[in-house]
Amino acid sequence: MTKTAHVALYDTLADWEIGHLIVELRTGRFTGQAWDVVTVAESAEPITTMGGLRVLPDRMLDGLDPAASDLLILAGAEHWDAGGGAVWTDAARRFLDAGVPVAAICGATAGLARAGLLDDRDHTSAAVEYLAMQPGYGGHDRYVDARAVIGDGLITAGPDSPVQFARATLSLLGLAPEQRLQAYEDVFHAADARSYPALVQA
Protein backbone atom coordinates (compact mmCIF):
# COMPACT_ATOMS: atom_id res chain seq x y z
CA MET A 1 0.00 0.00 0.00
CA THR A 2 1.36 3.39 -1.02
CA LYS A 3 2.17 5.68 1.86
CA THR A 4 1.07 9.31 2.02
CA ALA A 5 2.81 12.52 2.98
CA HIS A 6 0.62 15.54 3.65
CA VAL A 7 2.11 18.95 2.86
CA ALA A 8 0.65 21.99 4.62
CA LEU A 9 -0.20 24.82 2.21
CA TYR A 10 -0.39 28.50 3.13
CA ASP A 11 0.49 31.77 1.43
CA THR A 12 4.22 32.61 1.22
CA LEU A 13 5.16 28.96 1.74
CA ALA A 14 8.94 28.74 1.32
CA ASP A 15 9.16 26.54 -1.76
CA TRP A 16 12.86 25.65 -1.57
CA GLU A 17 12.76 24.40 2.00
CA ILE A 18 10.71 21.30 1.24
CA GLY A 19 11.56 20.82 -2.44
CA HIS A 20 14.20 18.13 -1.95
CA LEU A 21 12.03 16.18 0.46
CA ILE A 22 8.82 16.09 -1.53
CA VAL A 23 10.64 15.17 -4.75
CA GLU A 24 12.35 12.21 -3.10
CA LEU A 25 9.12 11.06 -1.48
CA ARG A 26 7.03 11.37 -4.64
CA THR A 27 9.50 9.80 -7.06
CA GLY A 28 11.23 7.27 -4.82
CA ARG A 29 14.16 7.64 -7.21
CA PHE A 30 16.78 6.91 -4.54
CA THR A 31 14.65 4.90 -2.14
CA GLY A 32 12.71 2.56 -4.42
CA GLN A 33 9.46 3.54 -2.71
CA ALA A 34 7.24 6.25 -4.22
CA TRP A 35 4.80 8.00 -1.91
CA ASP A 36 1.63 9.97 -2.56
CA VAL A 37 2.24 13.66 -1.84
CA VAL A 38 -1.04 15.35 -0.91
CA THR A 39 -1.43 19.06 -0.23
CA VAL A 40 -3.66 20.32 2.59
CA ALA A 41 -4.96 23.83 3.29
CA GLU A 42 -7.48 25.62 5.46
CA SER A 43 -9.65 26.48 2.44
CA ALA A 44 -10.10 25.38 -1.16
CA GLU A 45 -8.62 28.63 -2.49
CA PRO A 46 -5.22 28.46 -4.17
CA ILE A 47 -2.24 29.67 -2.17
CA THR A 48 0.75 31.58 -3.55
CA THR A 49 4.18 30.37 -2.51
CA MET A 50 7.09 32.66 -1.73
CA GLY A 51 8.41 31.88 -5.21
CA GLY A 52 5.12 32.97 -6.79
CA LEU A 53 3.68 29.55 -7.63
CA ARG A 54 -0.09 29.25 -7.28
CA VAL A 55 -1.01 25.89 -5.79
CA LEU A 56 -4.48 24.41 -5.42
CA PRO A 57 -4.87 22.20 -2.33
CA ASP A 58 -5.88 18.58 -2.69
CA ARG A 59 -7.88 18.50 0.53
CA MET A 60 -8.98 20.56 3.52
CA LEU A 61 -7.29 20.60 6.90
CA ASP A 62 -10.50 20.06 8.87
CA GLY A 63 -10.86 16.60 7.35
CA LEU A 64 -7.27 15.51 7.89
CA ASP A 65 -6.98 12.42 10.07
CA PRO A 66 -3.48 11.40 11.24
CA ALA A 67 -4.58 7.78 10.94
CA ALA A 68 -4.82 8.29 7.17
CA SER A 69 -1.34 9.79 6.90
CA ASP A 70 2.28 8.76 7.27
CA LEU A 71 3.88 12.21 7.52
CA LEU A 72 2.97 15.89 7.95
CA ILE A 73 5.32 18.46 6.37
CA LEU A 74 5.41 22.08 7.56
CA ALA A 75 7.45 24.63 5.61
CA GLY A 76 8.40 28.14 6.60
CA ALA A 77 6.19 31.10 5.67
CA GLU A 78 5.64 34.70 6.74
CA HIS A 79 2.75 33.88 9.06
CA TRP A 80 4.99 31.95 11.44
CA ASP A 81 7.05 35.04 12.29
CA ALA A 82 3.85 37.06 12.67
CA GLY A 83 2.74 34.71 15.46
CA GLY A 84 0.32 32.71 13.30
CA GLY A 85 0.00 29.08 12.33
CA ALA A 86 -1.84 27.80 15.40
CA VAL A 87 -4.13 25.57 13.31
CA TRP A 88 -1.05 23.87 11.91
CA THR A 89 0.64 23.39 15.27
CA ASP A 90 -2.63 21.93 16.53
CA ALA A 91 -2.48 19.50 13.60
CA ALA A 92 1.16 18.72 14.39
CA ARG A 93 0.19 17.92 17.97
CA ARG A 94 -2.51 15.52 16.78
CA PHE A 95 -0.05 13.79 14.47
CA LEU A 96 2.66 13.45 17.09
CA ASP A 97 0.18 12.23 19.69
CA ALA A 98 -0.96 9.60 17.19
CA GLY A 99 2.62 8.50 16.53
CA VAL A 100 2.72 9.96 13.01
CA PRO A 101 5.93 11.87 12.17
CA VAL A 102 6.02 15.62 11.57
CA ALA A 103 8.75 17.37 9.57
CA ALA A 104 9.08 21.11 10.25
CA ILE A 105 11.60 23.55 8.83
CA CYS A 106 12.47 27.21 9.35
CA GLY A 107 9.57 29.34 10.64
CA ALA A 108 7.46 26.28 11.32
CA THR A 109 9.83 25.50 14.18
CA ALA A 110 8.90 28.85 15.74
CA GLY A 111 5.24 27.87 15.67
CA LEU A 112 6.04 24.53 17.28
CA ALA A 113 8.10 26.36 19.92
CA ARG A 114 5.15 28.60 20.81
CA ALA A 115 2.94 25.52 21.07
CA GLY A 116 5.34 23.83 23.50
CA LEU A 117 6.00 20.96 21.12
CA LEU A 118 9.78 21.40 21.29
CA ASP A 119 10.09 21.53 25.08
CA ASP A 120 10.56 17.79 25.55
CA ARG A 121 12.15 16.81 22.22
CA ASP A 122 15.59 17.27 20.75
CA HIS A 123 15.27 19.90 18.01
CA THR A 124 16.97 22.60 16.00
CA SER A 125 16.07 25.70 13.99
CA ALA A 126 17.76 28.70 12.41
CA ALA A 127 19.33 29.50 15.80
CA VAL A 128 18.48 28.98 19.45
CA GLU A 129 18.10 32.77 19.77
CA TYR A 130 15.33 32.65 17.17
CA LEU A 131 13.35 30.15 19.20
CA ALA A 132 14.10 32.01 22.45
CA MET A 133 12.11 34.94 21.08
CA GLN A 134 8.97 32.79 20.85
CA PRO A 135 6.50 33.17 23.74
CA GLY A 136 6.13 29.95 25.67
CA TYR A 137 9.30 28.30 24.42
CA GLY A 138 10.85 26.14 27.13
CA GLY A 139 13.07 23.85 25.14
CA HIS A 140 16.44 25.56 25.51
CA ASP A 141 17.99 22.47 27.06
CA ARG A 142 16.85 20.27 24.16
CA TYR A 143 18.18 22.54 21.40
CA VAL A 144 20.85 20.88 19.23
CA ASP A 145 23.20 22.96 17.09
CA ALA A 146 22.92 20.83 13.96
CA ARG A 147 21.61 21.15 10.41
CA ALA A 148 18.68 18.79 11.06
CA VAL A 149 17.56 16.90 14.15
CA ILE A 150 15.24 13.96 14.81
CA GLY A 151 13.51 14.01 18.17
CA ASP A 152 10.68 11.69 19.20
CA GLY A 153 8.92 11.61 15.85
CA LEU A 154 9.69 15.21 14.94
CA ILE A 155 12.23 16.36 12.34
CA THR A 156 13.38 19.98 12.55
CA ALA A 157 15.81 22.06 10.50
CA GLY A 158 16.77 25.63 9.76
CA PRO A 159 16.13 27.45 6.45
CA ASP A 160 19.67 26.82 5.20
CA SER A 161 19.39 23.04 5.43
CA PRO A 162 16.79 21.68 2.98
CA VAL A 163 19.04 18.78 1.97
CA GLN A 164 19.73 17.76 5.55
CA PHE A 165 16.01 18.15 6.27
CA ALA A 166 15.23 15.70 3.47
CA ARG A 167 17.95 13.32 4.62
CA ALA A 168 16.75 13.30 8.25
CA THR A 169 13.16 12.72 7.21
CA LEU A 170 14.03 9.86 4.86
CA SER A 171 16.11 8.40 7.68
CA LEU A 172 13.31 8.56 10.23
CA LEU A 173 10.95 6.96 7.72
CA GLY A 174 13.44 4.16 7.12
CA LEU A 175 13.47 4.72 3.37
CA ALA A 176 17.20 4.36 2.77
CA PRO A 177 20.29 3.09 4.58
CA GLU A 178 22.60 5.66 6.15
CA GLN A 179 25.33 5.06 3.56
CA ARG A 180 22.98 6.09 0.76
CA LEU A 181 21.64 9.03 2.76
CA GLN A 182 25.20 10.25 3.32
CA ALA A 183 25.79 9.98 -0.42
CA TYR A 184 22.58 11.96 -0.99
CA GLU A 185 23.83 14.78 1.21
CA ASP A 186 27.28 14.63 -0.37
CA VAL A 187 25.82 14.97 -3.87
CA PHE A 188 23.11 17.57 -3.27
CA HIS A 189 24.78 19.64 -0.56
CA ALA A 190 28.51 19.27 -1.16
CA ALA A 191 28.30 18.73 -4.95
CA ASP A 192 30.53 15.67 -4.60
CA ALA A 193 30.10 13.75 -7.84
CA ARG A 194 32.19 10.89 -6.46
CA SER A 195 29.27 9.98 -4.20
CA TYR A 196 26.77 9.58 -7.02
CA PRO A 197 27.40 5.85 -7.63
CA ALA A 198 26.68 5.09 -3.97
CA LEU A 199 23.50 7.14 -4.23
CA VAL A 200 22.03 5.29 -7.21
CA GLN A 201 23.10 1.76 -6.32
CA ALA A 202 20.28 -0.75 -5.97
UniProtKB/TrEMBL annotation:
Pfam families the UniProt entry points to: DJ-1_PfpI (PF01965)
Stored InterPro entries: Class_I_gatase-like, DJ-1/PfpI
SUPFAM superfamilies hit by this protein: Class I glutamine amidotransferase-like (SSF52317)
Transferase found in the keyword field: yes
Tagged with keyword Nucleus: no
Recorded GO MF terms: transferase activity
Domain DJ-1/PfpI: 4-170
Keywords from the UniProt entry: Glutamine amidotransferase, Transferase
UniProt name for this protein: Glutamine amidotransferase
Species per Swiss-Prot/TrEMBL record: Jiangella anatolica
